[in-house]
Amino acid sequence: MVPELRQSLFGVEFQAPVLLASGTCGYGREYAGLIPLDELGGLVTKAVSVEPRSGNPPHRVAETPGGMINAIGLENVGLEAFASEKLPWLRDHLARAKVFVNVVGRTVEEYAAVVSGLDGEEGFLGYEINVSCPNVEGGTMFGTDEAALAALVGRVRRETERPVIVKLTPNVPDIGIFARICEENGADGLSTINTFPGMLIDIHHRKPVIGNVTGGISGPAILPMGVYLTWRAATTCSLPVIGIGGIRSGEDALQYILAGAHLVQVGTASFVDPAAAATVQEEISSHLVGAGIGSLSELVGGLRLPEDAQA
Amino acid sequence: MVPELRQSLFGVEFQAPVLLASGTCGYGREYAGLIPLDELGGLVTKAVSVEPRSGNPPHRVAETPGGMINAIGLENVGLEAFASEKLPWLRDHLARAKVFVNVVGRTVEEYAAVVSGLDGEEGFLGYEINVSCPNVEGGTMFGTDEAALAALVGRVRRETERPVIVKLTPNVPDIGIFARICEENGADGLSTINTFPGMLIDIHHRKPVIGNVTGGISGPAILPMGVYLTWRAATTCSLPVIGIGGIRSGEDALQYILAGAHLVQVGTASFVDPAAAATVQEEISSHLVGAGIGSLSELVGGLRLPEDAQA
Amino acid sequence: MISSRQVATDTCWLELDSPEIADRAEWGQFVMIGFGLDHLAPPFLPRPFSVGWRAEDGRIGLLVRAFGAGSRRLAELRAREHVLLLGPLGRPFRLETGSRVACVAGGVGLAPFLFLAGDARRQGFDVDLLYGELTADKVFDTRLIEELTGGPPIVWTEDGSVGRRGRVTEGLSVEGPVTVLACGPTPMLRALAGRAAREGFDLQVSVEEHMGCGVGTCQGCVVQGADGRWRKACTQGPVFYASELTWSPS
Amino acid sequence: MISSRQVATDTCWLELDSPEIADRAEWGQFVMIGFGLDHLAPPFLPRPFSVGWRAEDGRIGLLVRAFGAGSRRLAELRAREHVLLLGPLGRPFRLETGSRVACVAGGVGLAPFLFLAGDARRQGFDVDLLYGELTADKVFDTRLIEELTGGPPIVWTEDGSVGRRGRVTEGLSVEGPVTVLACGPTPMLRALAGRAAREGFDLQVSVEEHMGCGVGTCQGCVVQGADGRWRKACTQGPVFYASELTWSPS
Ligand SMILES: Cc1cc2nc3c(=O)[nH]c(=O)nc-3n(C[C@H](O)[C@H](O)[C@H](O)COP(=O)(O)OP(=O)(O)OC[C@H]3O[C@@H](n4cnc5c(N)ncnc54)[C@H](O)[C@@H]3O)c2cc1C
Ligand SMILES: Cc1cc2nc3c(=O)[nH]c(=O)nc-3n(C[C@H](O)[C@H](O)[C@H](O)COP(=O)(O)OP(=O)(O)OC[C@H]3O[C@@H](n4cnc5c(N)ncnc54)[C@H](O)[C@@H]3O)c2cc1C
Ligand SMILES: Cc1cc2nc3c(=O)[nH]c(=O)nc-3n(C[C@H](O)[C@H](O)[C@H](O)COP(=O)(O)O)c2cc1C
Ligand SMILES: Cc1cc2nc3c(=O)[nH]c(=O)nc-3n(C[C@H](O)[C@H](O)[C@H](O)COP(=O)(O)O)c2cc1C
Ligand code: FES
Ligand code: FES
Hints:
The complex is a heterotetramer, with 2 copies of chain A and 2 copies of chain C.
Chain A: E1 7-9, E2 12-14, E3 18-20, E4 42-44, E5 61-64, E6 67-70, H1 78-93, E7 98-103, H2 108-118, E8 126-130, H3 146-159, E9 164-167, H4 175-184, E10 189-192, E11 196-199, E12 201-202, E13 207-208, E14 214-218, H5 223-236, E15 241-244, H6 250-259, E16 261-266, H7 269-272, H8 276-291
Parallel strand pairs in A: 3-4, 3-16, 4-7, 7-8, 8-9, 9-10, 10-15, 15-16
Antiparallel strand pairs in A: 1-2, 5-6, 6-14, 11-14, 12-13
Helix pairs in contact in A: 2-3, 3-4, 4-5, 5-6, 6-8
Chain C: E1 3-8, E2 11-17, H1 19-24, E3 30-34, E4 47-50, E5 53-54, E6 59-65, H2 69-75, E7 84-89, E8 100-106, H3 111-122, E9 126-133, H4 142-149, E10 154-157, E11 164-165, E12 179-183, H5 186-199, E13 203-206, E14 222-224, E15 230-232, E16 239-241
Parallel strand pairs in C: 8-9, 8-12, 9-10, 10-11, 12-13
Antiparallel strand pairs in C: 1-2, 2-6, 3-4, 3-7, 5-6, 13-16, 14-15
Bound molecules: flavin-adenine dinucleotide (2 copies), flavin mononucleotide (2 copies) and FE2/S2 (inorganic) cluster (2 copies).
One flavin mononucleotide sits at the interface of chains B and C.
């Protein structure tokens, strides 16, 4: 029997639960020919901002124990070029895989401008709002500032009928608080999690390896943090959650799904093996077969806690 | 030439910069005979609370990618038994290695009681205040609640003349804020960092691997986060910092030292190889020789940032 | 690491060169085995394995069954690969009253008895070695068992595909003074513990629990004592009297 | 992975079986090589290496020098170990004007020229292969170089311990129409780029930068273009005209 991997979510049907994570699949086209994009659940584009951004000086990536550090600096072609040069390819080449546009900004209005500017275009399903960005008006990051996050989510919501997914920042005391803020302000879903702030030092030259000094940590190293934060977000609000962080196998993905994720994203693993996301999908499928489970949805949030345990 | 590893700190001299981290070396005695304890910089005891604590149900530890998860539950013998059964051994067997007592509590007064109860005893240098504990009065954790942390540090300070080191929690938006709170309230130093909240799921039984459901993530996986948080803490306040997180080599330790740490602690690595801390000390020494550096203190905070970079 | 041979499905017999451990290991003690700090893939944390054999020439034998990622990698050890060994660790089995010893082994719980049965027989004990597996393919090469222990094991399989059919615990008879030792999956130990309580005989069990350090520093390996308090499997165990522990159903 | 031989201190020549890559690789292209997702120790991320050779029978050759932890592990590859190869990747060198080609190789920057020099000579180009190292012990087995390239390299060492003494760049003469290609450490490329600008000759360089994906998705591998904008070393390079790039001093 072929297990059912489809997930109905955000008013559409995802043929499979695995998406490529933002920043790790470019605008899709870069992977064309290399992997069967249209057989995946979908992909999330590199961040898009109102104006083009040139990004950080090298080195931008390096390996860390069991993972990597990156500081790309949200380099992207900007709203206009994205709409005219990148979206059409996605529209024409992806029939089944769903596309989310990852949105960044320095102010609430910049986020709103990207969403309103793209909303009439074709070739994508919805938005993933990357709130791990400094708020130039507030000083802090949107993703770690309750008031700024509430304002941002509410504002973006008013610009579109499309699904709005908020991608949460991991370095907060209680991600549940931020999950509820997104819910109360009209988000349709959450992505957990973005990278952890980190730093790598070249001890021989006494300088940071990364041109930007600090960067974001991703890869297998952050898997257990991501599973925890996904569980915490999924159990403190009622929004559907997309699990992200360190996934490189069906077993990793199923940890997120049991913790409450409806979908997952694969990022760093694609650098190690471009086929990683497709393999994760196959491994999920064979696990279901082996366990005699008919449909993946039976497992979403299926974690069983010991009686005495409190969340 | 033999490089100078000594560090003068907290009014005493550490013969070497490497200590064993709390919870990974018991009360010292467990490692006696196995490793040359008295040749290390020192050790930090397992947490001590006013009353004995029985801790969490098994499983309490498991491996995660590039690290481990633990939820011991701060099991410990309690203040009295610690003073009568554990301290004397440390007093009698450690002549040069310095001892910090890791202190936990559920209320500010419980912390204060441990410190006042131990202060007259011999066999240790000072306290490492573990603020990654739920504050039963406030609901949140001391380490993520600015007001609770200020009250706790101030209160503990009044109980003792000994060095008070505050061990910070990593899952906050800006650890610099908490570093300054410790400084303003009379702490003598900081330890960065404690474990990250995480979760590991047994997908076959659909249950958490860890009896306590969630646990703390440690080991190489968290090295770049620890280096960043140490750098952030060291550059936002003027307290000496002890770097902790994923250290398993001299190079790892030197990343922390260049980031601003005066001392470092080795935890998880001792489980993989009990000689890890001693090896780290040797590797630091040989790096200094190779680089022609006479004294380790020349490297403390010696990170050079690119001109254009801002912290 | 000297040699490895597959002795059953997913199961290898490893011989390692470690004079100190071979010299000091007692029945039922274990070693922590890992690859050291440069090895980040499982097993990153060392894993506990019972000493299954010790030879005069400094070799020790371990019986390794691929269970998860960590033990799979150990079961794939190739000759001349280097591993980090810490041990011997833990409290051993004790041979007491009378001259009869009954060893009940479930799966790789056989390991400590390979070592013990041979020694005990040489010391004049009369040893029954009851060894159970689910199916025949899991059964450890019985010729090697005889070679190591100086006698044939009484093999049980749950499907009866080899030896007697059923649970190995059924094979245990406790007439007269006999020291009963058991090592295997917790459900098997629980069943035996229940019987020992009912029939009132002494039972020593070797328990399994996840371990961090193996030497008593991390408090990661606890099992629940009869008084409700936790015991460290690594230093207060792995061998306990069944009566010292709480056997919660699960 | 078919064979590995040490050809100089810390330097190995790896031959791998990869018909697709051997069939399609062009001069100056590279492969990403790693161990796959189960391998967490360095190299966890795959590393870029120039295709140093391609054979009719589907083998490719890589010249690997142990630099950090990742390349050290690759330099220690043993026969029959499996690796993950992605490639051929990136823009190749282009042979143009005239019939003379001057290749300037610094250290393992020699790799792409092993491949190119042999082919080019067979196609009737007159090739100078200038190859520099710090010291003699680093110099790649010159007999093997001749074998692969069909001619002797002109070796330079900074300490003069073998070949001519000094920087290999001094050896470059650019009279007449000549295509100048360079691969090696950035300081060497910078020096050549300066000279190319002053003396007004075309120079193609193969640059190095940390890479994540190798295929243009991560934007991790940028170098600065002459217009100040970033270029991706993996897809817009690794071969650039020196005049396309900014050569900031450092
Ligand atoms: C005292 C003692 C003696 C043992 N003797 C043997 C033996 O002779 N032969 C044999 O095949 N097995 C033996 N085991 C079990 C063996 O240690 C486990 O198979 C192995 O540690 C877990 O397998 P894994 O690492 O592949 O599991 P993984 O799935 O890789 O482990 C994941 C995590 O769980 C931990 N873990 C899982 N199961 C166990 C376990 N049973 N004990 C300790 N940690 C565990 C691992 O340490 C790791 O932290 C013994 C266990 C103990 C406690
Ligand atoms: C196009 C290209 C072709 C190359 N061809 C060769 C060759 O033929 N022979 C050879 O010996 N070397 C070659 N290199 C360099 C080789 O990739 C590096 O030696 C290796 O990636 C870094 O060494 P390491 O992993 O041991 O460093 P580590 O210290 O393990 O690397 C740490 C981090 O830095 C990154 N990194 C460090 N140096 C480099 C580098 N130079 N390029 C990319 N990432 C780096 C690693 O990917 C990792 O993320 C080439 C590099 C590029 C970009
Ligand atoms: C090179 C790189 C670039 C990234 N760029 C973005 C981005 O533009 N927007 C975003 O929301 N997340 C970005 N991320 C974060 C990933 O989408 C993902 O949240 C994170 O890497 C954790 O998943 P992983 O461990 O599977 O990589 C980036 C990650 C990497 C490694
Ligand atoms: C098993 C275990 C028990 C620990 N117990 C304590 C503790 O009682 N108090 C404390 O402050 N930190 C405790 N820690 C955290 C460590 O002291 C250290 O901060 C953390 O493990 C990161 O360092 P590492 O990566 O070198 O292990 C414990 C860590 C582990 C692995
Ligand atoms: S394994 Fe650490 S105390 Fe037992
Ligand atoms: S390495 Fe990823 S874009 Fe070049």
